[in-house]
Design a protein that fits this description.
Layout: H1 3-10, H2 14-20, H3 22-39, E1 46-50, H4 56-64, E2 69-74, H5 77-87, E3 92-96, E4 109-115, H6 126-136, E5 137-146, E6 155-156, E7 160-161, H7 165-171, E8 177-180, E9 187-193
Parallel strand pairs: 1-2, 1-4, 2-3, 4-5
Antiparallel strand pairs: 5-9, 6-7, 8-9
Length: about 200
Amino acid sequence: MDVQEYWQERGKTYMDKMTADNIQAQIFRKQEYALLEQLKQMQFYKVLDVGCGYGRISKLILDNFKKVEITGIDISKEQLENAKKFVNDKRASFGIGNVYHLDYADNTFDLVVGVDLLLHIPDDMINKVISELIRVSKKYVIHADWYELEWIGKSKGGYCWCHDYINVYRSNNYVVKEVPTYQYSRQSLFILNKETDKLDQHEV
């Protein structure tokens, strides 16, 4: 089963399983707190939530930032139907999207966000996907993903990869900020401001 098939199948029951898991809920709350702490330092209106799932992060942003509109995309029809019900906000829209080829013009969104997304991108495609996130963002890219130095370049289960995000961003001519989501977490937030974090060509 490839990654897309895995998520199309898992998407059918993902919301029910995640919302019923108390341990997972605690992890989510810590992750959401860390994400909000970073988002509060940004100014944005149009948001793209890539791999939005059942809308957990879209709802988090809408609940905490009143003057925003969000577009959420995912490959799972079931996840998107759940997102529409879970978020239930006129400022949000949801639809099928392909992270490898985002169907938006350059600089469309003030903020592009992805949570637990890029760890599911195969190693040979991560540069392409991050390039797409950067391309459609006018200013900010932020994502939360598995990040353990000893696991960089390796995978688990055939559908989780630990990427060298620092160097992937450098290859796209940017310096990205890395912040652990919480103490002892195996996950980090990666934050890019396109206006301030661009490398000079001679530094690449």
